[in-house]
């Protein structure tokens, strides 16, 4: 049996059953991510009561997640299934950078939300961030994220790799100058910037916020404003926990590969990497579910939009005479 045949057998992602599961998993994330994040963006645009600074930052999160759902995940799935790069030179340089930028936007925005609430609740700062300043912060967030992700586009190589005299594949991979150690240094640095530092900042901020709100409630401050603040803080804290839990396996596995190169040659490395990537990408559609579950304003807005959509579909069904929906509510 040839060496290439052994390698193909060791790659579990080539099994039909595994590929079906991967297609279903990625398709589900893309579907829920696009619907959920688009709905968040729409309701904040549609309802004036939701046009607050915090919700603008939440929209920024939704845009970043939508970018991952539409521009990154479909290509990642195809690349995983085929085992080679099928999208040409330009996308080889653009897509990894776009995905890195979107992740940076998400982490930075979560930090900004936490620090803004920490400023207003812990230090009793009544002066709120203006919408103009919010727009400036969002623009800076995208600019800084693009800068941090730019090495993924700069230090990259697209070319043909010969498996045998009769077989070759297109490869899109990182290529760092001088030594591969530079790539390891960048990966570890990004692990700290994308995960370690944001998690530390969020944890400290929300622990202090929670303690402040708890003490205020204990000393007879149970008014509507305090209750709303507590509910919103609980929702935002849950978002951070989801981010931390979903990204932990992926970052831990990537760190292990950076530190010990033998991890790259372990059996089913590609499958494990893909599974951890799927778990991490679940964070791109969970946030809209959290808004609808834990925030009354978002829940009401979502129900209102859903009601309008169902009414429109039912009207169209009745108008055309087609049995599009067989539902008593129509």
TrEMBL record:
Chain ranges of the G-protein coupled receptors family 1 profile domain: 36-291
Assigned GO CC terms: plasma membrane
Pfam families, alphabetized: 7tm_1 (PF00001)
Membrane topology: Multi-pass membrane protein
Keyword Metal-binding: no
Gene3D superfamilies per UniProt: Rhodopsin 7-helix transmembrane proteins
Bilayer-spanning residue ranges: 20-45, 57-82, 88-113, 134-155, 185-207, 235-257, 269-293, 300-319
Highest rank taxon of the organism: Eukaryota
UniProt-annotated location(s): Cell membrane
InterPro entries: GPCR_Rhodpsn, GPCR_Rhodpsn_7TM, NPY2_rcpt, NPY_rcpt
GO terms for MF: neuropeptide Y receptor activity
Keyword Nucleus applies: no
SMART domains associated with the record: 7TM_GPCR_Srsx (SM01381)
Keyword annotations: Cell membrane, Disulfide bond, G-protein coupled receptor, Glycoprotein, Lipoprotein, Membrane, Palmitate, Receptor, Transducer, Transmembrane, Transmembrane helix
Family indicated by similarity: Belongs to the G-protein coupled receptor 1 family.
Protein name: Neuropeptide Y receptor type 2
Naturally occurring in which organism (per UniProt): Lates japonicus (Japanese lates)
């Amino acid at each position: 049996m040839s060496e290439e045949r052994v390698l193909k057998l060791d790659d579990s992602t080539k099994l039909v059953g595994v590929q079906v599961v991967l297609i279903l998993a990625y398709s589900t994330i893309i579907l829920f991510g696009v619907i959920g994040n688009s709905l968040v963006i729409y309701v904040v645009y549609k309802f004036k009561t939701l046009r607050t600074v915090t919700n603008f930052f939440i929209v920024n999160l939704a845009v970043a997640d939508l970018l991952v759902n539409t521009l990154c995940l479909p290509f990642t799935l195809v690349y995983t299934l085929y085992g080679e790069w099928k999208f040409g030179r330009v996308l080889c340089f653009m897509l990894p950078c776009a995905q890195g930028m979107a992740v940076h936007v998400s982490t930075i925005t979560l930090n900004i939300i936490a620090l803004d609430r920490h400023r207003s609740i812990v230090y009793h700062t009544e002066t709120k961030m203006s919408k103009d300043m919010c727009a400036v912060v969002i623009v800076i967030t995208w600019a800084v994220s693009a800068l941090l992700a730019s090495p993924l586009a700069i230090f990259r190589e697209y070319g043909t790799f010969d498996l045998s005299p009769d077989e070759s594949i297109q490869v899109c991979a990182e290529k760092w100058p001088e030594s591969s150690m530079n790539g390891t240094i960048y990966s570890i640095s990004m692990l700290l910037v994308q995960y370690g530092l944001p998690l530390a900042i969020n944890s400290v901020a929300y622990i202090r916020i929670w303690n402040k709100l708890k003490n205020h409630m204990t000393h007879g401050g149970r008014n509507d404003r305090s209750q709303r603040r507590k509910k919103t803080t609980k929702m935002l804290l849950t978002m951070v926990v989801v981010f931390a839990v979903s990204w932990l396996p992926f970052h831990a596995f990537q760190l292990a590969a950076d530190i010990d190169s033998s991890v790259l040659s372990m059996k089913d490395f590609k499958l494990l990497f893909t599974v951890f990537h799927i778990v991490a990408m679940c964070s791109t559609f969970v946030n809209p579910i959290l808004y609808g579950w834990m925030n009354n304003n978002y829940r009401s807005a979502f129900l209102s939009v859903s009601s309008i959509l169902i009414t429109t579909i039912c009207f169209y069904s009745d108008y055309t005479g087609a049995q599009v929906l067989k539902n008593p509510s129509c």
